[in-house]
Request: fold
Amino acid sequence: MFEGNGRREQSEAYGLKVYLCGIDCHREGENSVQKNKKQDTRLKVYAQMVFEKTHTREEFRRIFGKSYIME
Reply:
């Protein structure tokens, strides 16, 4: 879910991954997370909300580099 600098591994370690319908939802479709920034951000916000049920926002920033939730 979160890319770069080992963040993918951290995403998996914290259970922050989603199962997409296939290549259309991942890379090729009009609303795929690779082509649609809004869709990508929506999933990252949701993942952060799940993370923050058991961790702090500061921990999220430290691990994933930034907060996706507007404050």
